[in-house]
């Protein structure tokens, strides 16, 4: 049968991602690449930046074939500005490199995410290669418009995002929430996105075992409330700190808030937001400490109320999830949110904002709790999870959480769904689509010519 031949055939898949650092989008890309590779397909990941000191293990330990290109002409930004323009030009540079070296001919399918700028270029010059665009969330809805000038600056990028996204052969999104937002953001795109949930897979390494035997900070009997997020203002980590401060007024010295996550010194927001959070702790009378690496975490004072861990390795995150009594997930309208799944598979109940992706992953009262951004409501759940729930209820919640993740959000499930999406891409493209691709290719050429002329 044709369908069976499709299903059994081995694919050559190219991944294109802007910056293979540490974050939810990067975790999804790495897991998708590994999952498809484990299904017997040939997978190569191309990126404009990959720092081996700031990326996931699979991107540096040889699990994946990761190659860097498109990073020699355009910098990541210009004096801290024009990041989106530079990201687009870097992706186009990477794609041109693949085309000019004929590297692109080695692949049958392309998985491209975050930026859709290169889709018309790839589709025009490599028409036989099928393109799946994975939309984590429409970029124009994430961009800030703090001034009239910034709003004007974003207009061409917003239009370009919608136009180029619609030229993909198929589109996948990370949640039903993102699918609904996508339909509102891009009403002219006829392709209906398919929901392909991200996955979570427990990791066990020799380093994890070593950390288990030699804990990174004092085990003084305090119960751990854990927050894992990048140090960005939209993650609303303030909510965890202010809610925890109310808890300490009731049960002082019986718990500790550990705030861990992605931190990059190149990103000014990471630096300033961390400083602001430390200042907030001081204002609320909480003793805070910051660990920038595993070694420094060993000397954390025992009376620390709030511990900041910057850019933790996977093994340390695994340890934190094992020891936490509650994970608090503070972002509002999060597109999906991989961290709650990581907590559930580790048997940790989750308290999350009642919006976005967590509405699809967390079962109220069964695997965790969903609450609005209200300090008192969050404090009440913290007290319940740490000090009031019976052990039997905690065990039942942990069991349900693990079962739910394995059933719906495993790496095997995600790879299977992506594999199916590649199989369903039509071999024929419409004449209308081809015409628009040609026009888009001309537009890309003019844009690149202009950009290089301005630099010279």
From TrEMBL:
Q: Where are the transmembrane segments?
A: 434-454
Give start and end of each Glycosyltransferase subfamily 4-like N-terminal domain: 22-193
Keywords associated with the record: Endoplasmic reticulum, Glycosyltransferase, Membrane, Transferase, Transmembrane, Transmembrane helix
Subcellular localization is given as: Endoplasmic reticulum membrane
InterPro entries, alphabetically? ALG2, Glyco_trans_1, Glyco_trans_4-like_N
Reactions accelerated catalytically: an alpha-D-Man-(1->3)-beta-D-Man-(1->4)-beta-D-GlcNAc-(1->4)-alpha-D-GlcNAc-diphospho-di-trans,poly-cis-dolichol + GDP-alpha-D-mannose = an alpha-D-Man-(1->3)-[alpha-D-Man-(1->6)]-beta-D-Man-(1->4)-beta-D-GlcNAc-(1->4)-alpha-D-GlcNAc-diphospho-di-trans,poly-cis-dolichol + GDP + H(+); a beta-D-Man-(1->4)-beta-D-GlcNAc-(1->4)-alpha-D-GlcNAc-diphospho-di-trans,poly-cis-dolichol + GDP-alpha-D-mannose = an alpha-D-Man-(1->3)-beta-D-Man-(1->4)-beta-D-GlcNAc-(1->4)-alpha-D-GlcNAc-diphospho-di-trans,poly-cis-dolichol + GDP + H(+)
Q: Name one GO molecular function term.
A: GDP-Man:Man(2)GlcNAc(2)-PP-Dol alpha-1,6-mannosyltransferase activity
Cleavable signal peptide: none
Where this protein primarily resides, as one coarse class?
endoplasmic reticulum
Coiled-coil region: none
Its UniProt pathway annotation is: Protein modification; protein glycosylation
Enzyme class, one word?
transferase
* Gene Ontology annotations for the cellular component aspect, listed alphabetically: endoplasmic reticulum membrane
Keyword Transmembrane helix set for record = yes
Q: Which residues form the Glycosyl transferase family domain?
A: 217-392
What EC designation does it have? 2.4.1.132, 2.4.1.257
Q: Which family does it belong to?
A: Belongs to the glycosyltransferase group 1 family.
* Role played: Mannosylates Man(2)GlcNAc(2)-dolichol diphosphate and Man(1)GlcNAc(2)-dolichol diphosphate to form Man(3)GlcNAc(2)-dolichol diphosphate.
Q: What is this protein called?
A: Alpha-1,3/1,6-mannosyltransferase ALG2
**Which source organism?**
Tuber borchii
